[in-house]
Each structure stands twice: as C-alpha cells, then as structure tokens.
C-alpha cells in the first residue's frame, strides 16, 4: 500500500487492538490441542479395553456353548445306554 514497515506495523497493531475478540496466545492453543489429544487417546484406550472385555466374554460364551453341547451328547448317550440297559435288566429266570 506504499507505506513503510513502521507505518504498516502501527496500522496493524491498531487494527488488532480494535478487534472485539482477541485471540488466545499460541501456547494456550498448543495446551488445548495437547489436552484434546490426551482425551482422545484416553477414549481410544477405553474403547480398546471394552473391546477386549467383550471378546473375552464372547470366548467364554463360546466355551460354555461347546461344554453344553458336549454335556448334551453325553446325556443323550447316557439315556441311550439306560434304554438299552433296561432291556438287558429285564431277565426272567426259567421256572
């Protein structure tokens, strides 16, 4: 604009001083960004922990289902043995 550096700086300072909103110093922005990053990291870590717990619960449930299926098969075999055994137990001695 054809002005000297000193004049430009003076005009810039007046413009900044006249603003209703004054920006925060840069160090506050950095602290805010760091706090936000830390909060995000904490949320991610919490989510990872919850996922691991859920996976553990699923694995336990799958194990319980397999055990239940095994117990059912064992029970079915026991019933079949009893049914067959009842026939073997019915013995009438000769007169």
Provide the fold topology.
Layout: H1 5-18, H2 26-89
Explain what the structure shows:
This protein has helices spanning 5-18, 26-89. It is mainly α. It has one domain (5-89).
Offer a quick outline of the entry.
With 95 residues, the protein is mostly helical. The protein has two helices and no strands.
Mean pLDDT: 81
How many DSSP-defined strands?
Answer: 0
The count of domains is: 1
- The fraction of residues in strands falls at under 5%
Radius of gyration, Cα only, in angstroms?
A: 40 Å
Give short descriptive properties of this protein.
95 residues; mainly alpha; rod-shaped
